[in-house]
Amino acid sequence: MNANFVRQAADYVLEHLKETPTIGLILGSGLGEIAARIEQAVKIPYAQIPHFAVSTAPGHAGCFVAGRLGGKPVICMQGRLHFYEGHSMEDIVFPIRVMKLLGVRTLIATNAAGGINHDFSVGDLMLIQDHINFLGSNPLIGKNDESFGPRFCDMTYTYTPALRESAQKQAHRMGIDLKTGVYLACSGPSFETPAEIRAFRTWGADAVGMSTVPEVITAAHCGMQVLAISLITNMAAGMQEESLNGQEVIELGKARGRLLEQLIENVILHTSTL
Ligand code: HPA
Predict the structure, then answer these.
(1) pTM exceeds 0.85, yes or no
(2) Residue 266 labeled ligand binder
(3) Which of 48, 134, 136, 241 is the most exposed place for a label (fewest CB within 10 A)?
């Protein structure tokens, strides 16, 4: 990744910001509405930012929204890029490095996912405790830029234990039965087969989706804390009678997404280390 390009994009965004964000948010399919809760919001369309690639995925708006959420300065990616759109890993994680240069220390990511764990139900929220990268690629492949992080990046504590604890505490306070589990990322765009889902279950996966892992790896590499939560929009292939379609993912995101947004806002508000 060209470090000058990251700098140029960050400089452009900085010119439009009222204050330095310390928290970066990525919103998943149908989960973009938390941006409406951001106070003193400044919107910056990706299309105007130098070197930014633009998302074509349904349910993704395509802009940064910066301002205050839960009393803290945030910058939110309303819409993200996916591997299945044909974007390079470099383009997918470019905004994470831009956020790093803006001053972001914590990444909070949401996504829509299919439930693999038999104890999950549609509409559940799952706190990601770890992931399995089944994308067939890694955003850190290529020349390493030491100014962001080391060549070989430790992934043991990627999903920051203190933030997970804080999320559990806030969920409990709100009466949410927050599930915990391992997120497995597939490239898509075809949904998984029932045989793949059975295999993933034996590997220890609890949910499956098509995003998040590249951004999280990049955030971990540059030393950010990470919190990530999935909304279970459907049970994975072969676990429900109906076949899967992308529309239910977006519709369910709209309904249960509001609860996920409140949870995230409470975590930001009540976590003193953020
Ligand atoms: N598989 C992959 N990605 C998804 C799913 C799924 O079942 N549901 C939402 N995103």
Answers:
(1) yes
(2) no
(3) 241
